[in-house]
Amino acid sequence: MPIRIPRGWELPESAATPEHLVLGRRKALGLGGLIAAGAALPWQGAAAQEAAPMAAMRNPAYRPERALTPEKDATGYNNYYEFGSSKNVTAAAARLPQRPWTLKLEGMVDKPQELGLDDLLKRVSLEERVLRHRCVEAWAMTVPWTGFPMAELLKLAGPQSGAKFVEFHTVADRAVMPGLRQSWYPWPYVEGCTLAEAANELCFMAAGLYGKPVPAQNGGPIRVLFPWKYGFKSGKAITTIRFTDKRPVSFWEQLQPTEYGFWANVNPEVPHPRWSQAHERLLGSNERVPTKLFNGYGEFVAGLYAGLEKERLYL
């Protein structure tokens, strides 16, 4: 008789949401499948996003083990230096057009291509994930994202055997981003990871937040998420994903490599040079809680770093 050992995230059937509640929720949202009902609308800014639902079935594999952050706090407290150094960039970010939007897959791939975002969302399997987000500044939030695993983009691109790293290039629109006038920053904002990290099940491309399209100030219309890393690794408003054999030097790493490294995995025992990382402040409640190694996602990602102990894996 075969013996099956469940993974730590698996839930018993009794804990699943009843089917009639799930289907009722989908009907209430007007979903005809998992694609947002307003995906084909010609959105231009944040105001148009508010009217269009963007929801999907929740994946129970990623249990946050803490309360959801109130939407007003998660969407009203943001780091987005392209729009300024203030935490309140909502009004400024609303000027960034959200449609039309294209995503380029290029570099060391068999299938370089340029995808319209709405077409892309029809080709992937959307799901909702409630994930913890940990900023290097020691604040945190827990929010429901709608999107798809980065691994689905890898299948569309077909990375070549020599590709080892992935670069994420974000939008740089001088017409609406006043921060780009600050020439001491190495614009555009570029982030990167290993191909193995991009293929990990936890790496996520998010196009929705709280059942609606991701607001511009939170990185809309599409951003990448690395929940086990500090938040600056999760690039916003992605325009190009490039596959390469050279390790990228990311935006903040170019500015201050002693404070912001390539790996930037969350570790409470490795302080930032100017502050501790042992605790984090939860947006909304302002409660201070202990920080977890890999932001609590070690069971999914710790194996990625076996044999890399000599690397500066944290910060």
Can you walk me through this structure?
With 315 residues, this protein is α+β, with helices and mostly antiparallel strands. The protein has one domain: Sulfite Oxidase, Chain A, domain 2 (Alpha-Beta Complex). It has helices at 19-29, 46-50, 71-74, 90-93, 117-123, 150-157, 195-199, 251-255, 298-301; strands spanning 102-107, 113-116, 127-134, 139-149, 165-170, 190-194, 204-209, 212-213, 223-225, 238-244, 279-282, 288-290. A hairpin with a 4-residue loop joins strand 3 (127-134) and strand 4 (139-149).
Radius of gyration: 19 Å
SS element count, helices: 9
The CATH homologous superfamily is named Oxidoreductase, molybdopterin-binding domain
On the 0 to 100 scale, the average pLDDT is 87
Reported CATH architecture: Alpha-Beta Complex
- Class by helix and strand content? alpha+beta
Provide the low-confidence segments as ranges: 1-51
What sort of overall outline do the alpha carbons produce when their principal axes are compared?
Answer: globular
Termini separation comes to 47 Å
How many domains? Answer: 1
CATH classification class? Alpha Beta
Would you report the number of β strands?
12
Q: Using the coordinates shown, work out and report the CATH topology.
A: Sulfite Oxidase, Chain A, domain 2
Q: Roughly what fraction of the amino acids lie in strands? A: 15-25%
- Describe the biggest sheet? 7 strands, mixed
Helix content: 10-25%
Order of helices and strands: HHHHEEHEEHEEHEEEEHEEH
Domain Oxidoreductase molybdopterin-binding: 99-252
Organism: Teichococcus rhizosphaerae
InterPro entries: OxRdtase_Mopterin-bd_dom (IPR000572), OxRdtase_Mopterin-bd_sf (IPR036374)
Protein name: Protein-methionine-sulfoxide reductase catalytic subunit MsrP
